[in-house]
Structure formats: C-alpha cells, structure tokens
Write a structure and sequence with these properties.
The complex is a heterodimer of chains A (300) and B (339).
Chain A (H helix, E strand, L loop, with lengths): L21 H11 L1 H18 L1 H4 L31 H37 L1 H15 L3 H12 L3 H9 L2 H17 L2 H8 L4 H9 L4 H24 L11 H5 L2 H4 L6 H28 L7
Helix pairs in contact in A: 1-2, 2-4, 2-14, 4-5, 4-7, 4-8, 4-10, 4-11, 4-14, 5-8, 6-7, 7-11, 8-11, 9-10, 11-14
Chain B lengths: L17 E16 L5 E17 L3 E5 L6 H8 L7 E6 L2 E2 L5 H8 L2 E4 L13 H11 L6 H14 L16 H13 L5 E5 L7 H18 L2 E6 L2 H7 L2 E6 L2 E7 H6 L4 H8 L6 H6 L40 E4 L2 E3 L5
Parallel strand pairs in B: 3-8, 3-9, 6-7, 7-8
Antiparallel strand pairs in B: 1-2, 1-4, 4-5, 9-10, 10-12, 11-12
Helix pairs in contact in B: 3-4, 3-5, 4-5, 5-6
Bound molecules: adenosine-5'-diphosphate and magnesium ion.
Chain lengths: 300, 339
C-alpha cells in the first residue's frame, strides 16, 4: 500500500499541559484524604517491619529466654516478654511479616482470580454468565471464616494452605463486584471494536476490559488485605492457621497470653493492638482509595 | 454524478463485482422476563428482512431515523451480533459457515468505524498501541519497529501528527480521536468499511474534514463503504447509492441523486422534507410535510406496510399486504404499492 499525502499535512501538535510533580500530588492527596494518608503511613510502617525485621531487632523471635519469662516492658524488652521468655516486640515485628505475606498474597490471588472470572462472565454473557452467577451465589452464602475453616480442615494448616483458605471466599466477592462494572464496559464500543478486529477472548478480557474495571478491583484488593490479616489472625488464634513457632499475631494471643492476661497483660495487649491497627489502617486506606477512584460507591 | 441504467456501476471506478450480499437478513432481540429462569415474552424486530448488495468501490448509504435498525444491520454483517436468519455473503463466502479462525481472517477484510470517538477507543491504551495492536494480533507486522513505522504512516495518512502515537485518547480532540478510529480500521488493510454514524458525533466543521478524509481514503485504498447515517445531507455528498430504512425494513433503494431528487416512497419524501435547507428564504417558502405520529415500536410493528399508519398516501390495502421492493425505474427500488 503506497501512501500519497497531498493535502493531508500533519497539523502541528500542541503541547500538553504539564502535570503536577509527584510531591505536589502526594501533598494534595494527604490534604484531601488525611485518614487514608494515616492508614497508608501505618501500612508503610508495617511494610518496613516486614522487610526489615532483622534490622529492627537483634533478638531471634523463636529464642526462649527462660530467665526473662513474663517480664514487663523495659528498655531491654520494649514490649515485655511472654511466658516462654520470648521478646514480644521482636515477635510483633516478625508477625508483621507473616501478616503481610498472608494478607498480600491472599488478597492478590483472591482479587485477581475474581477479576478474571467476573470480567469473563460479563464478557461471555448469556448462559455462561447466568450459571456463573448462581455458582458464585452459592459460595457467597457461606460466611468467609466458615469457608476458610472448612478449607483448612481439608487441606491442613500451614502458611500456604492458610493463604488458599483465606483467598477462596474472596474470589466470588470480587467477581461479583467486578462483574457488575464489567457488564457496562461490555457495552462500550471499544469492546465491539476489539471483537471486530478479531482479538481473542483472552486478549479482550485481559487487555481491553480488565484495565477499565481497575477502580472496583483496587477497592476490593485493599479491603481484602485488611480482611485477610484479620482472617489469618483468627485462624491462627483458633490453632488452624500459622503454626508455632512461626511468629504470628493471632498465635501470640492464645495460650500463655490468655492464661496470664491479668498478671502480664502486655503479652496479649500488644499483639491485639497490632492486629487492630493493621486492619484499621487497611480499612482507612481502602476507604480513601474508594473515595478517590469511585465517588459513587461512597455510600456503601 | 451520472445515473446509469445499472446502478452498480453508476460512476467510473465502480465495478460490477458484488462485494457484499445481504439477503433477507432478520435480527430479532428477545425481550425477556424473570430473574432466574428467563422467558421470552416478546421480540424486538430490529431488522426484518433486509436485502441489498454492495459493489466493490461503491459507497452505499443506509439512512433512517434512530432505532430503525441501521446499526443492527451493520453489527450483523460484522458478526458482532449473530443474525436471526438470512444470508450474508462477503466476496461470495457465506459468513455463517466460517470457523472462528476463518472469521478472524475475514475480519482483516471488513472493518468498522463507530459513531462515538470518545467510547470507541480504549482509554487505557496509547494511540500507537491502539493502531498497532491489530497488526500484531493478525501477525501482519511481527517486528515492533516496523509496526511503529507503519503506525506513524497510518497516523499521517489520517491527517494526524505521528507524534500523537504516544498520547492517550483523552489527550485528543473528538475529531482527532475519530481519525485514530479510522487509522485503526485501516490497520488491517480492509476492503470494506462500515461507517456507523462515523461523523454524527462531531462538530459540523470537523464533520466535513472527516468526510473528506473518508473520500480520500476510499480512492487511495480502493475502499468500499457501507455508510450508515441519519443525516441525509452527509449521505448525498458521499454515497453512490442510498438505502432508506424504516422499522427494520428497506423502503427505498436507489442511486443517491434519484433518492434525493425523485424520492418515490412516501417515507423518503417525508424524511427529505424534514431536512432543513441552508438558505432561509427557500426554507421558509418550503411546504413542510411532516410525518404524523410517532415511530411505532419494533416489538409490535404495524401489519402490512409498516409505514401505513403514518403514511399520507395510505389506502385500505396498505394494512393488509406487505409491499415488496419493486424496481420502478432502472436501479430504483421502492417498497410501496401506491408509488
Ligand atoms: N442488544 C439489543 N437488545 C435489544 N434490543 C436492541 C438491541 N440492540 C438494538 N436493539 C433495538 O433494535 C432497534 C434497532 O436498533 P439500532 O439498530 O441500534 O437502530 P439505529 O442504529 O438505526 O438507530 C431499536 O429499537 C433498539 O432498541
Ligand atoms: Mg445506530
């Protein structure tokens, strides 16, 4: 195909307005969403704890110092020790690693698989969509923690299985929300254009529809991380999650912490606070993400 | 434009080769009720027995009021919607019998330009990727650098600065976006392009530019167009032949000049009477013959001739029998028993 271009000169391209610098944009965000920013700050602190545990403390989290059992907070042991003489500050820091690991991976796989299924269901429509919706309804009828308990009792405990158990109930939740957004995307002509251009189903779902349902996806993802941290703590507390001696906040609440709750409250209070703050931080951040990305969802 | 006896080759450059044949096309959309178990309570007869041919190099206009089934006809040809019945032959090949791979190959030959330049481009993709993706998917230019060159060339051909390849659609004006849509349609080097109201959403000044571009491209790349529009003035300028649709049916099909200068169907006459003339003196002196009543619902179209309840020339027989398209003058087909 040859190209002749009389009277088709290229018009001059006008410059685009410059974007604000990153710092300015961050500051604007802090001003508009102070709670979200506070949440993000705590998430950042937790991330630093998770990655830099070895730097933040020199004590081995599994080390039992029998000469220091149930000691109150002091300069040596910032948050005290538990009934095995393990440093609580150290275990909270390493527990952050476990919490973030489970929270992030469960939320990631749960929301990404939910995204694909939800968008796919909306894209194919018809019978496939109808059957898919009913199956999702069945799964949504179980409370998440019951389903997670059932999965753990089948698969067994351990980090990987805990992630799977927490992730599974998230899939239908995410799929349902994403599907309803994707249904409207399905009607937008660029999807028809993609079909007319002969793109594969997978390409249309992944490249053309999924990026345009990012708002509900990110909202689900951030709220899932908080939910997953709480679910991991619950499962671990019940003895069905992460197993000793791996440091996990839920585990720190059971056993000795319960037994000596009155004489040594620090053993239960600090891990409890860690869970509370972590979940709270992700909820605040999630709400801010939702407000920024999708003001329509605010009233939910 | 001279009007020959043979409407297909009304102008130089048009061949007798039939590129697209649509035969008795019907598309009924079910109207369903019920949450869990859907049951069909009625049908929207969006397209109800439409037949026409498009010759290579020709531009066939498809006009009619909003909701008369123009887009649905286009979507059936593109196989975005499966037809309820009828035949669509492209280059002699029946589109219904193609496998998915064969259909994808066919899609290199038939492309589409949509009405709304804001929603027909993926907002998350850069212009260069939007235009380059079809070539990549179809393996036309596997080499990324060659593809970039070709994208720049296509942008240039469509009157855009090749530097626009790095922009997102929202950073462009409506006219520029529509040019991107045109460049994307050209990426696969199609023979046939369906323009579904391709200029209707644009400002009048930009409409003219885009129409000129479409004309230039038609000559440059030997394109054949099915030009869907509800604006008749646009159609007259661009089309060789025009088909007028009403409630899912073609009521008149003739060379463009004959449709405009000598409309034979009462609906076409009414439609033309509704087009304002730019000159205010002529406009005020003109007899305004408007159609009475509303367009009936395609769920329950009138019996016999679908236009009869609104037709100024209707006689008793019109509600009884469905008028067939008859060739009243050479190449001039009308579906009216009284014409
Ligand atoms: N997917 C669909 N489901 C149900 N009805 C539809 C669908 N698409 C179009 N229709 C109906 O079919 C008729 C023709 O629509 P369309 O082809 O878009 O008209 P036009 O393009 O001429 O304005 C309209 O009455 C419209 O409501
Ligand atoms: Mg339309």
């Amino acid at each position: 195909m040859t190209v002749t271009t009389e009277n088709l000169g290229s018009p001059d391209i006008e410059a685009l307005p410059e974007r604000d610098s990153l710092i300015v944009r961050c500051w604007n965000l802090v001003r508009r969403q102070p709670l979200g920013a506070a949440g993000l700050l705590f998430i950042a602190i937790m991330t630093v704890m998770a990655f830099g545990a070895e730097v933040l403390t020199s004590i081995n989290p599994e080390e039992q110092m029998f000469e220091h059992m149930l000691e109150a907070p002091s300069w040596e042991f910032l948050l005290g020790t538990d009934n095995f003489g393990r440093d609580i500050w150290t275990r909270i820091i390493y527990g952050a690693r476990t919490a973030m690991l489970v929270g992030f991976f469960a939320a990631f796989f749960g929301s990404v698989i939910g995204l694909m299924l939800g968008v796919g269901s909306a894209y194919f429509g018809g019978k496939i969509d109808l059957i898919f919706q009913r199956v999702m309804d069945i799964f949504l009828a179980f409370p998440s923690i019951i389903m997670a308990l059932a999965v753990v009792s089948v698969l067994g405990t351990g980090l990987q299985n805990v992630i799977i158990a927490i992730m599974l109930p998230m899939i239908p939740q995410c799929a349902r929300v994403v599907r309803s957004s994707a249904l409207s995307i399905r009607e937008i002509p660029y999807v028809d254009a993609a079909r007319a251009l002969g793109y594969s189903h997978g390409r249309i779902i992944l490249r053309h529809m999924s990026p345009n349902v990012m708002a509900p996806f990110l909202i689900m993802f951030t709220s899932f991380v908080g939910q997953a941290i709480l679910a991991e703590a619950s499962l671990s507390y019940l003895g069905l999650g992460v197993q000793e001696p791996i440091p996990a906040w839920g585990l720190m609440l059971q056993g000795g912490a319960e037994e000596y709750a009155e004489s040594a409250p620090w053993a239960a209070v600090f891990p409890g606070l860690a869970i509370t703050f972590a979940v709270f931080a992700f909820n605040l951040f999630g709400d801010a993400v939702r407000d920024v990305l999708d003001p329509k969802l605010r009233s939910r | 434009m001279s009007v020959d006896a043979d409407a297909g080759s009304a102008e130089s450059g048009l061949s007798d080769e039939v590129l697209l044949t649509v035969r008795n096309l019907r598309k009924y959309f079910p109207v369903t009720e019920g949450m869990m178990i859907k049951r069909t309570v009625a049908e929207v007869k969006a397209v109800d027995g439409v037949s026409f041919e498009v010759h290579r190099g020709e531009t066939l206009g498809l006009v009619g009021e909003s909701g008369c089934g123009k887009s649905t006809t286009g979507r059936c040809i593109l196989r975005l919607d499966p037809p309820s019945s009828g035949e669509i032959l492209f280059g002699g090949v029946d589109m219904a019998n193609l496998s998915r791979a064969e259909l994808n190959k066919m899609r290199e030959r038939i492309q589409v330009i949509f009405q709304d330049p804001y929603s027909s481009l993926n907002p998350r993709m850069k212009v260069g990727d939007i235009i380059g993706e079809p070539m990549k998917v179809h393996g036309l230019l596997p080499d990324a650098d060659k593809r970039r060159e070709r994208v720049a060339e296509l942008l240039h051909v469509c009157g855009l600065n090749p530097a626009m390849a790095d922009r997102y659609p929202h950073e462009m004006s409506g006219g520029q976006r529509q040019r991107v849509g045109i460049a994307r349609a050209l990426a696969l080097q199609p023979e046939f392009i369906i323009c579904d109201e391709a200029v209707s959403a644009l400002d009048v000044s930009i409409q003219a530019q885009v129409i000129n571009l479409l004309e230039d491209l038609r000559e440059q790349f030997n394109l054949t167009y099915l030009f869907i529009a509800h604006d008749l003035s646009v159609v007259r300028h661009l089309c060789h032949r025009v088909a007028v649709m009403y409630l899912g049916k073609i009521v008149e099909l003739a060379p463009a000049d004959q449709v405009f200068d000598n409309p034979l169907h009462p609906y076409t006459q009414a439609l033309l009477a509704a087009v304002p003339v730019p000159d205010p003196e002529i406009e005020s002196a003109r007899a305004h013959q408007t159609v009475k009543g509303e367009v009936p619902s395609p769920i329950n179209p009138p019996s016999g001739c679908v236009f009869h309840p609104r037709c100024p020339k209707a006689v008793d027989g019109c509600s009884m029998s469905v008028p067939e398209l008859r060739e009243l003058e050479p190449g001039h087909w009308v579906a009216c028993s009284e014409a």
